[in-house]
UniProtKB/TrEMBL annotation:
PANTHER family: ENERGY-COUPLING FACTOR TRANSPORTER ATP-BINDING PROTEIN ECFA1, HEAVY METAL TRANSPORTER. Residues 5-237 form the ABC transporter domain. CDD domains: ABC_cobalt_CbiO_domain1 (cd03225). Transmembrane segments: none annotated. It is found in: Cell membrane. One of its GO terms (cellular component) is ATP-binding cassette (ABC) transporter complex. The lineage of its organism: Bacteria, Bacillati, Bacillota, Clostridia, Eubacteriales. This is Polyamine-transporting ATPase. Its EC number is 3.6.3.31. Keywords: ATP-binding, Cell membrane, Hydrolase, Membrane, Nucleotide-binding, Translocase, Transport. Its main location: membrane.
């Protein structure tokens, strides 16, 4: 069965001739929680930036519901939300509410619909009380939640996170992790790039490992946990801890 999101022979070569990703064939089904892991330089971020057309391939293609995303990039970006590693690079509004409204406003929606989406999205991430606050005053965890709200306001089917825990303290990690798990429970397809498997692996149904621009392993986390160190990925602490017990959430 075809997935909601697919890549076929996806290859990206930089202008200097270096191949960032090579011949990636991948199919992700609706409702999956997928982790993409790999050492620095393995091609993880380059891969996910092709999912909604931020990068265009040198060869191959990306399909969304069976159609090339290049057929309608605007529609693809509505259905696939990408949350960057650096939250500040994604925040553009003068207030929290303004920032969440930015995406819907660019869809030329009515004021009533924009306000409705902003209200729902802020409630979903627990930032309603900070709607009129300036984003630069937020904590790291709150900024990450704000970027999630901005993506939610676009009503995406798929949400892609690129190293969502970078720079966060423990409370911030818990805030963001609860948000991600909640989004999955509410029916969103989650794709998460991370090297911190101990925080997320218990919640995922699939682990993809990349090395040198290629997918080298793809399967259930419990089947691959003993192999991750072979690919330069830190194994979650505790030699005998099973994937089922590695959870940061109660």
């Amino acid at each position: 069965m075809s997935g909601i999101l697919e890549t076929q022979q996806l290859t990206h070569i930089f202008p200097n001739g270096k191949a960032a990703i090579q011949e990636i064939n991948l199919s992700i089904k609706g409702g999956e929680f997928v982790i993409i892991a790999g050492p620095n330089g393995s091609g993880k971020t380059v891969l996910i930036r092709h999912f909604n057309g931020l990068f265009l391939p040198t060869k191959g293609k990306v399909l969304l519901e069976g159609e090339p995303i290049t057929k309608d990039l605007t529609e693809a970006r509505k259905k696939i939300g990408l949350i960057f590693q650096n939250s500040d690079s994604q925040i553009v509004g003068q207030t929290v509410a303004d920032d969440v409204a930015f995406g819907p406003e660019n869809l030329n929606l009515s004021r009533k619909e924009v306000d409705h989406r902003v209200k729902e999205s802020l409630e979903a991430v627990g930032l309603s009380d900070l709607a009129n606050q300036q984003p630069h005053t937020l904590s790291g965890g709150q900024k990450k939640k704000l970027t999630v709200a901005g993506v939610l306001a676009m009503n995406p089917q798929i949400i892609v996170f690129d190293e969502p825990f970078t720079g966060l303290d423990y409370p911030g990690v818990l805030q963001v992790l609860k948000q991600i798990v909640g989004l999955h429970k509410n029916g969103h397809t989650i794709i998460l790039v991370t090297h911190e498997l101990e925080k997320t692996l218990a919640h995922a149904g699939r682990l993809i490992i990349m090395e040198k621009g290629r997918i080298v392993r793809d399967g259930e986390p419990s089947q691959l946990i003993n192999e991750v160190e072979l690919y330069g990925i830190r194994r979650p602490y505790g030699q005998n801890r099973s994937v089922e017990t590695m959870t940061w959430l109660s």
